[in-house]
Prior knowledge:
The protein is mainly alpha-helical. It has helices at residues 2-16, 20-37, 39-42, 74-110, 112-126, 130-141, 145-171, 175-182, 187-195, 200-223, 235-244, 251-277, 280-285.
Amino acid sequence: MNATLTTLRDSSRFISRGGAFAWAGLALLTAIVLTAILAPLIAPYDPLAQDVVNRLMPPSSEFWLGTDSYGRDVLSRIIYGARVSLFVGLVSILIAMTLGTTLGVISGYVGGRFDAFVMALVDLMLSFPSLLLGMLVAAVLGASLENLIVAIAITEIAPFVRLARAPTLVLKEAEFVQAARSMGCTHQRIMRVHILPNLIADILVMGSLWMATAIRTEASLSFIGLGVKPPTATWGGMIREGFENILEAWWLAVFPSVFVFLTVLALNLLGDGLRDATDPKLRQRD
């Protein structure tokens, strides 16, 4: 119990270093996550239930955010769509973070031709806009939830490689690493125990920022038909349908776009706050 309270107190103190924006981002993101988790309890209607009698109904007391061209409740579909966006964003970033950080640490530690080859590959990946690269991968793999995650993860690997490689080049020459090497520690242990823990804070902070990019990419790919197949509710798919009916049903595109904006805003606020909290200058003032 005491350990739990200490952890919560330390976490609160850490986020407090990020200022009011960090707390605002955390509060907004928590609300969105809870909405997605509790979707079956708070969604007023079945997101897949069609009612052609009430198709394209504007926002009202019965349908708070209106209905789409099939008579499905927009609010319910947005709530369930949050599950897809958050799941895709989180899983794709975790995959990219794991693979990119591992490859970046190994590349920076090993050096030589291997490092040159990895960085050439990373530069090639970064030469493509993330959305374009995601479109290429998604188009090759096909439209599905699993392929969407893979496509977005591939677009996010390169930044993590660079983020992990740069400090590794410095850390591998540090005295504590040299001491560990002189004591007979294996290269794998040095990278895992002595180098990686020094990177993890920056990796997690940037991961929260790049998760916002992953969610935007998911919405964009779903918008052009390379995301999760209908009738599953996704924010990008709803925005696409909204543009098809923009003149007669403005709410179909506006409300999903607002939720994408709020989610990206929350992640950026939280990420910026955490980045400030990990700033050594700010830590010295604490």
